[in-house]
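B., you asked whether I could sanity-check this one before it goes into the benchmark set. Here's the sequence:
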Amino acid sequence: MSTPLVHNLSALSGLSAADIERIIRSAPRRYKVFPIEKRGGGIRIVAQPSRELKLLQRMIVDRVLADLPVHESAHGYVRGRGIKSNALAHSQGRYLLKLDLENFFPSIRPLDLARRLSRVSKISLELEEKRQLYSLLFWRPRGAGMQLCIGAPSSPLVSNALMYDVDVAISALTTERGVIYTRYADDMTFSCAEKGVLPELQTLVENVIESSRTPRLRVNRAKTVHISRAQRVVVTGVTINTNTEISLGRERKRLIRSMVHRFQLGELDLEACWKLKGLIAFAHDIEPEFAAKMRAKCKPIQ
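And here's what the prediction gave me:
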């Protein structure tokens, strides 16, 4: 017998209840998996859900999980916030600390979501509905347990919601010390005006992170960075210059100009054209005048 969750998804999607139940049974394996090279080296595994599964995941985010709280420190995948707001929050800081969470998305499991749902009174689901929900939202790679993946439209909200308690605890530490804290997915950034505050804070924050049980998290210490404004400051790919203004940075501008020139010469393949389009869209958010000039030179890929 179909559950209320299945009936609701059926009414929203136009798929029959039988079709949705069929998708649920095989959902954890309905992913196309491919590697993407990281900017700093190494490979990131992206799992892209099938078209039907992606449709259901979006509906779950909008209609079922919308009441899950997300902390104000989260800037990744949050309406009205993003890479730009994340960088701007630290534009006045003289000293910065950047921490990275290791294997962030794969660290999040169905049990973590189960524990969070049990604490949100506005979301009421029967046990079978919860099992169906986990099947729809979590990927099962070969030889491993179910986990959150990079590539599903539901993963950002789920990860932000499950980081709520960690964000609350870290924000309490930073507020009492006059430190600004933001998080963009697995990238945590801290800034303040006083020297010597952040090294002490780092230990306290790491204790909060690694004592978390829902989800279980680890700090990637190889990526921990302490910076002062005497150095070049980059926050989630955005450069903060000495005048406390944000910019794309010289290297990214040079890359965009080079790709635009190659486009004009007809030397870019389709994949590179899409990459250039994405770079110009990113530039528009940070330096709109520069982006407009570049866009005017490559109108066919608008």
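One thing to flag: The chain has a mean pLDDT of 92. Otherwise nothing jumped out at me.
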